[in-house]
Amino acid sequence: MILLLVLVAALGLAVGSFLNVVIWRVPRGESVVRPPSHCPGCDQPVRPRDNVPVVSWLLLRGRCRDCGEPISIRYPLVEAGTAAAFVILTLRIGFEPELVAFLYLGAIGVALALIDLDVKRLPNVIVLPSYVVAVALLTIAAVVSDDWDHLLRAAIGMVALYGFYFLLALIYPAGMGFGDVKLAGLLGLYLGWLGWSELVSGGFLGFLFGGVVGGALMAVRRAGRKSQIPFGPFMLVGALVAILFGGALADLYLDTMLG
């Protein structure tokens, strides 16, 4: 088990390294394949030995080998964060057929959260193909495990959460973008696969986290009532918490309400 988790973490580091390219290039409409990674200061290609996740950044002390240009600490943090997300999701899901689908969600979740923070946008080029990938991977999982109830619930969750966010966007378009609506359907697919408790918890927690952080920013005067705060990261964090603890949170709520 430990060896498998180490392999999952190593995979997460490698994927996180690629996500750094995605996060930088996709919002700018650039290819994520060409040209190869290079220093923005001197335009020199990054050597293979300088492209080892986390380790290379530490050995280079956060600077380009050729020109000394600082390399943002966000690069190793994305790599380490993706590895941590992969391990956490593996511990939650286990080595089940649907694990690949959830690791894919973890990867695009990291990319989408940071892109939304950077440019306040959830790119269609990531979100829309993810529907196809997620449906395909979860369908394969349903075939392998012969568990079609999960897939049906996932489809209902996708439609339900998409419809709820779509209604909110129609009622209050200034506070809800259609990028959030499209992401909601994708998250509903995954949360629905796990259970009704995870679906409801995930939908609620995004608003809870967004409200708490938004209120805190206004309290310290870092934002106003009309400030645009990207909502995607809160949706993704809420979904992650629901994936990990949705069932327990639902039980706690029911126990509290019912005494």
Q: Return the average pLDDT rounded to an integer.
A: 92
Number of helices: 9
Intertermini distance:
40 Å
Q: What class, by secondary structure content?
A: mainly alpha
Give the biggest sheet: none
Shape, per Cα inertia axes:
globular
| Rg computed from alpha carbons, rounded to a whole number of angstroms | 20 Å
Produce the secondary structure layout.
Elements: H1 2-25, H2 55-59, H3 74-93, H4 99-119, H5 124-145, H6 148-171, H7 178-194, H8 196-219, H9 232-258
Description of the structure:
The chain has 259 residues and is mostly helical. 71% of the residues lie in helices and 0% in strands. The chain contains nine helices and no strands. The longest helix has 27 residues.
Main attributes of the structure:
259 residues; mainly alpha
Q: What is shown here, in short?
A:
The chain has nine helices and no strands. With about 260 residues, it is mainly α.
